[in-house]
Specification:
single chain; mainly alpha; two-stranded antiparallel sheet; two-stranded antiparallel ribbon; 12 helices; about 50% helix; about 5% strand; globular
Length: about 300
């Protein structure tokens, strides 16, 4: 009987009408959403990407119970509607603290693994692929900036393409040869963080700068690497899981018109256990089985609407 909905953090109490008008939308928020609100102007939150929205909200809030996730994911996939949801309480395998066990995802060896691949393989293969280039730049900045404690919101590179993206990739390809790993990593930590904050503060592009069908194909590739049990080149190391889950959530939250603040996407790499749990939550929401393939096929996505 009230038009007030309770969001434990970080929004406090928010108006149901504000949600309906789309004024409050945050992938970091734990928000009680009524069926009436969801069926209103937030229809973009429902559809092919619906389960990923639930998965990303859960992955960035691992305090969500596995039972709630199971219910929510099956509801979204089967009915194509997000029914009343409250992602809060319970526990998975870790607590809500930012770093569960003190293990850092982006240690020097992990930084080398990601940046070596991005520099030697990723950039040369994606010269004409703005989606992949934005993702590579995003992963590069998260890995290289972590030792200095710098964090970025989810659209820091995604909405600065090609200006900031090109600056980061130029700095990445200018690093010393990966034949000398220690020298390479040290140079990366010294030079890349500044490249990651270069350019205009104001966003230079929006989601519509990307082709929906190409984005769908890339989403499929990320989903497969994260969740396909027998994939030949899986994203099964913590630093791979953290950035790949981040890529999925960037596209998903942007398509839903949601914010993706630094503290939310940064939580994916808060610890090794956190990265592993986030990956598991996404794969539980939209499984990829050996016999049937992905539960949801993103090939059907032809529009961000």
């Amino acid at each position: 009987g009230s038009n007030r909905l309770w969001a434990p953090s970080p929004l406090g109490q928010v108006s149901a009408m504000a949600l309906l008008r789309g004024q409050v939308a945050n992938c970091d928020a734990e928000v009680l959403v009524s069926k009436r609100v969801v069926q209103g102007k937030r229809r973009r939150c429902v559809g092919i990407l619906g389960s990923f929205i639930v998965a990303c909200m859960s992955a960035m809030r691992p305090s969500a119970s596995s039972e709630s996730l199971t219910y929510l994911s099956s509801t979204v996939v089967n009915r194509r509607a997000i029914l009343p949801l409250f992602i809060a309480g319970g526990s998975v395998s870790i607590q809500q603290s930012a770093v569960a066990d003190g293990s850092q995802v982006f240690m020097d060896s992990a930084i080398f693994e990601r940046l070596q691949h991005f520099k030697d393989v990723g950039v040369p293969a994606t010269l004409q692929d703005p989606i992949a280039r934005a993702a590579i730049a995003d992963g590069t900045c998260r890995a290289a900036s972590a030792p200095k404690g710098r964090t970025f919101d989810g659209y820091h590179l995604w909405h600065h393409n090609p200006d900031r993206v090109d600056t980061v990739l130029k700095a990445l390809t200018s690093l010393p040869s990966t034949n000398q790993p220690s020298k390479f990593v040290q140079a990366a930590k010294n030079s890349l963080p500044d490249a990651c904050i270069a350019g205009k503060v104001q966003e230079t592009n929006k989601l519509m700068a990307y082709d929906p069908k190409a984005t769908a194909a890339t989403l499929t590739a990320w989903h497969r690497a994260l969740c396909k049990p027998d994939w030949e080149d899986p994203a099964n190391e913590p630093q791979q899981q953290a950035v790949t889950a981040g890529f999925i959530c960037i596209v998903t939250c942007d398509a839903a018109g949601m914010r993706l603040p630094a503290e939310a996407i940064g939580a994916l790499s808060a610890s090794i256990e956190y990265a592993q749990t986030a990956s598991a939550l996404i794969c539980k929401a939209i499984p990829w089985t050996i016999t049937r393939g992905p539960l949801v096929s993103f090939d059907k996505m032809t529009s961000f609407q």
